[in-house]
Amino acid sequence: MAIPQKARVNESKTNGRTATPPSSAMQVAPPPEKIALRAYELWQESGCPEGKQEEHWFRAERELRGAHGRSQKA
Predict the structure, then answer these.
(1) How would DSSP label each residue in 19-34?
(2) What's the first-to-final CA gap in the chain, in angstroms?
């Protein structure tokens, strides 16, 4: 059975491999409410410093993205 021309063109673009999106593209961002709660916890754990809100927010987001990714794979 012959491979349709369109399939051959797509295959040549990926050197015969199946193209898959990076895993980060498939991740869903955690809800802002969960990020805010975790960021608040981190802020409290670090002694309630002023001017660290972005640091705590991004750390909380990273933690939750990792936890969210692991829970979906299980």
Answers:
(1) P---HHHHPPPPPHHH
(2) 39
